[in-house]
Each structure stands twice: as C-alpha cells, then as structure tokens.
Amino acid sequence: MRRTVVAANWKMNMTPSQAEEFINAIKTDINGADNEVFIIPPFIAIPKVISLLEDTDVKVGAQNLYFEEKGAFTGEISAEMLTDAGVEAVVIGHSERREYFSEDDEIINKKLKKAIEHGLTPILCCGESLETREEGKAAEWIERQITQDFDGIGREDALKCIIAYEPIWAIGTGKVATSDQAEEICAKIREKLTQLYDQEAADGIRILYGGSVNAGNCAELFAKDNIDGGLIGGAGLKPEFTDIVKTGSPN
Ligand code: 13P
User: Fold this and answer.
1) Of 219, 175, 215, which is closest to residue 26 (Cα–Cα)?
2) The pLDDT of residue 249
3) 213, 238 in Cβ contact below 8 A?
4) Is the CB of 211 under 6 A from ligand 1?
5) Average of pLDDT values for 140-154?
6) pLDDT digits over 35-79, tens only?
7) CA angle 168-172-177, nearest 5°?
C-alpha cells in the first residue's frame, strides 16, 4: 500500500508575503488529509511557510540543492542548510533545471546522493520531450534517466526516494498526458526499478505524475495502479489545490 503524495511545486512564484497570504487561506483545508502533502516554495519563502505550517501535518520541500557539502559556491544552497531550516524533501532533476541550468544525469545523481545522505526525501523528476515521444522513444528515454540517476544508489536508499514522471510537453501547457499514457510510463519506471533492485523495492517506491494536473483530472490519474499521486505546478498556486489534496486514491 503506497500512500498517495500531493506536492505543490511553486517554481519561481510567490513572494514571502504572497506565500503567507496563500498558506493562511488554504492551511485548514490541506491539513489532516489521507494523502501526504508537500508544499515546495522558493527558498526565500521556506522559513515563513515552515512556521505557518508548524501545527499541521503538511511537509515543506525545496526545489533544488547543491551536491557539495559547503564552501565557495556562490548562490547555492546545501542539504544541511535545508534540513537545519526544517525542510523534509527536495525536488531534484526537474526538467526546467535540466533545460535552463544544464543539469545532466551525472549532476542529478550527485544531488540525489547528497539529499539521501542528509535524510531529505528526494523527489526525482524525469520526463521526455515531445520530439522524443513522437519518435516513439519515451520509455527508452525515461529508463535511461532512471538508470543513470540511481547509479550507485543502494536498495535501502532508493526506497527513500519519490519519483515524478513529468513529460516536458505536458508541463504548463494545459496538455495533460492521458491517464493511460501516464500509467504506461509509470509502469515502465516500476519495471526498471525491479530490474535495478527487486520487485519488493519497486513496489515500495512512490511514482507521481506531473504536467497540467488540476482538480478536474487528478482523480483519474491517481486511480491508476502505478500512479501514486501528483507533482503539481500551476494548480498548486490556486485554491483548487485543496481539492487535489483531498482526492482519494486506493493505491
Ligand atoms: P504544471 O502543473 O504547471 O504543468 O507543472 C508541472 C510541474 O512541472 C511540477 O513540477
């Protein structure tokens, strides 16, 4: 039985004051859900969001970290800084980081290891471009990403991770993957995890779908066997996020 995860990745949205206003408006509604809920604000809003959610079961994540322990890396944030601030999870390898900030699977692998070392729950993102999908190579692409991103990560550590399948063509476009398309790739990810580890480990790892998820389409997506929740962008900035949080799922 995998507990469904609903995580709001705010990306580069919400000033600390806007975050305060929004959290105050939705706080009661997102607390006490059957699903495990994460709010993932920009770094600068994290302390405020953590203090506002202190008396709830909602967890706070970060959108990135650096793979070095500490030192002369101007502009970067370390795993230790995140855990010290009370952060519990971290998004790693989002397609926007891969595309705009040249993060490759080697960097992502190092970040994954650093997050695990510090007890942060990684939310590892993978996803193919429209071009790759149209060439019929989506599954192959994702399997390669998973293999490289988990390189050198042992079974027990892999079990601490959450994976998010986010097809790039569905992010922020309003063009959601059909629940069958999303399920097909999430099943392939689980198959790959079975090969890398074993069936029991693969069955224990939560796999989310992300890309234009909203209150209207989340129930159908979350009901799929291999989809264990959602990584939500745009809809995570709106009051409708509370409806997504409350969406039940038997798997
Ligand atoms: P949207 O829900 O805005 O498509 O974004 C998805 C996403 O990238 C979450 O990380």
Assistant:
1) 215
2) 52
3) no
4) yes
5) 98
6) 999 999 999 999 999 999 999 999 999 999 999 999 999 999 999
7) 55
Answer yes or no: 94 catalytic: yes
- Which is the catalytic residue, given 94, 96, 103, 183? 94
Average pLDDT, the chain: 97
CA distance 243 to 249: 13
Atom of ligand 1 nearest to the CA of 125: 10
- Hey, where are the domains in the chain? 5-245
Is 69 catalytic? The answer is no
Q: How far is the CA of 71 from the centre of ligand 1 (A)?
A: 32
How many contiguous H segments (helices) and E segments (strands) does the chain have? 12, 8
Q: Which one-letter DSSP state was computed for residue 36? A: E
At which residue do the structure tokens 């790892």 appear? 205
Residue 6 tokens read as 């609903």
For the chain, percent helix, then strand, then coil, each to nearest 5?
A: 45, 15, 40
CA dist 179 → 122, 183, 217, 232, 239 (Å): 24, 6, 9, 15, 23
For residues 131-160, one letter each, b for 16 or more C-beta atoms within 10 angstroms of the residue's C-beta and e for the rest, the string is ebbeeeebbebbbebbeebbeebeeebbeb
Q: Find out if CATH 3.20.20.70 is the number for domain 5-245.
A: yes
Cα distances (angstroms) measured from residue 14 to each of 41, 86, 97, 236: 8, 19, 19, 11
